[in-house]
């Protein structure tokens, strides 16, 4: 009888506890509910801020595109350049034929601040006459006024300059390009090449990828047959540079090796005909401001300023703040990653070379 009463009493307690439910547990955990794409942190640090409205020294932007394609837009761009102390912009058109002529006439007809570069004519890439035809068009673009070649692109699938060249595996170390690169050396035309993308674009899209929010937009599918990973596409580019020692090459975006400055430094040490530009890598480099500053200091004679972004005033101002100041833990409107920006705080000596002197060295060495 006592045992039965104890059982009934225990059962009653369980029922009461069950009706009351667990304590201190919200119906939905906000951490679980928040999606990564909606994470938009605001810095709480109260520190001195610096917002340069123009580059500290006269600047040459060695990497831009035809972001404005009408007279009014280009004239507004010129106004923005004047306000930001930018004396010249290299416009990489990737174009040839009538399209190159149109863009050349449009930009140079409005302002001498623009220098227009052409692409390679890949329309006969799979035919025996390709090298001769492509070289002939390159010479024509040069005679028209093309100051260099760019931006050529290979992110792992191979050449992606034109809609015609779609052969997976046609990388710039392919012998098909030899005559073109040698002609560039003969004409004194620098060649700007985009090889690969930041390392996060080649990593799995999982919880360990700290560049996930950008990687999801630019991810490289390595399962596609013939696709090179970042190491492979860098190796192909370096082989191209080695095979054409008289050609001036510019590796766009720090050769996408800002995660491995030691390797990038060794490549520069071994190839005196190679320069690098910093275009569109301000978010990727300022996350390691001390390592980046040390690299820029060591290779201050080989680095070129570039933007490769829409020429909005805020974009230019972000460049000056990151390169010139030591501001810490701030966010940009354009931000794709979820890490804070940091100022690199380069010295005036490095800034002068980065902004201007190194570019002048390349541009003035040409045979024009």
Q: Can you describe what's shown?
A:
This protein is of the alpha/beta class. The chain has one domain (59-364): Metal-dependent hydrolases (TIM Barrel), CATH 3.20.20. 40% of the residues lie in helices and 10% in strands. It is built from 13 helices and eight strands. The protein has helices at residues 2-20, 30-33, 71-83, 97-110, 130-144, 178-187, 212-218, 230-243, 261-270, 282-285, 289-298, 313-324, 348-364, and strands at residues 59-64, 86-92, 114-117, 149-154, 191-195, 249-251, 274-277, 303-304. Strands 4-5-6-7-8 form a five-stranded parallel beta sheet. A three-stranded parallel beta sheet has the order 1-2-3. α4 (97-110) links the parallel β2 and β3. The longest helix is centred in the N-terminal third of the chain and has 19 residues, at 2-20. The N and C termini lie far apart (111 Å). Mean pLDDT is 90; it is low at 1-23.
Helix and strand pattern: HHEHEHEHEHEHHEHEHHEHH
CATH architecture group name: Alpha-Beta Barrel
As for the CATH topology, it is TIM Barrel
Q: State the helicity in percent bands.
A: 40-55%
Quick one: overall form? globular
Q: What oligomeric arrangement do these chains adopt?
A: single chain
Alpha plus pi helix count = 13
Note the gap between the termini: 111 Å
Q: Strand arrangement, largest sheet?
A: 4-5-6-7-8
Question: Uncertain spans, ≥5 residues at pLDDT below 50?
Answer: 1-23
Number of strands: 8
Mean pLDDT across every amino acid position:
90
Looking at CATH, the homologous superfamily is Metal-dependent hydrolases
- What radius of gyration results from the CA coordinates? 26 Å
The tally of domains stands at 1
**Proportion in β-strands:** 5-15%
CATH class: Alpha Beta
Q: Pairing-aware structural class of the strands and helices?
A: alpha/beta
Largest sheet: 5 strands, parallel
């Amino acid at each position: 009888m006592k045992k039965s009463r104890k059982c009934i009493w225990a059962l009653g307690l369980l029922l009461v506890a069950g009706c009351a439910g667990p304590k201190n547990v919200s119906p939905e955990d906000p951490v679980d509910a928040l999606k990564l794409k909606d994470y938009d942190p605001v810095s709480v640090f109260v520190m001195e801020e610096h917002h340069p409205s123009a580059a500290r020294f006269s600047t040459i932007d060695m990497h831009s595109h035809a972001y404005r394609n009408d007279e009014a837009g280009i004239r507004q761009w010129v106004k923005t350049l004047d306000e930001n102390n930018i004396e010249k912009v290299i416009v990489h058109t990737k174009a040839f034929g009538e399209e190159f002529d149109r863009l050349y006439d449009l930009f140079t007809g409005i302002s001498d601040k623009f220098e227009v570069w052409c692409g390679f004519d890949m329309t006969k890439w799979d035919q025996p006459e390709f090298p001769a035809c492509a070289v002939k068009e390159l010479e024509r673009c040069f005679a028209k006024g093309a100051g260099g070649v760019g931006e050529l692109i290979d992110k792992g699938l191979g050449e992606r300059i034109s809609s015609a060249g779609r052969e997976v595996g046609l990388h710039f170390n392919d012998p098909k390009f030899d005559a073109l690169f040698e002609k560039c050396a003969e004409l004194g035309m620098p060649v700007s090449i985009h090889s690969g993308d930041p390392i996060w674009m080649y990593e799995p899209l999982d919880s360990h990828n700290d560049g996930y929010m950008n990687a999801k937009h630019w991810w490289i599918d390595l399962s596609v047959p013939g696709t090179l990973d970042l190491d492979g596409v860098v190796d192909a580019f370096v082989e191209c540079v080695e095979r054409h020692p008289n050609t001036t090459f510019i590796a766009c975006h720090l050769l996408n090796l800002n995660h491995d400055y030691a390797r990038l430094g060794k490549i520069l040490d071994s190839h005196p005909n190679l320069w690098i530009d910093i275009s569109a890598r301000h978010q990727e480099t300022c996350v390691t401001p001390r390592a980046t500053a040390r690299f820029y200091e060591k290779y201050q004679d080989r680095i070129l300023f570039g933007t490769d972004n829409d020429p909005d005033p805020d974009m230019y101002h972000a460049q000056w703040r990151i390169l010139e100041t030591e501001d810490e833990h701030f966010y940009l409107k354009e931000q794709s990653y979820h890490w804070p920006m940091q100022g690199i705080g380069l010295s005036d000596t490095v800034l002068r070379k980065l902004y201007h002197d190194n570019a002048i060295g390349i541009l003035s060495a040409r045979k024009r």
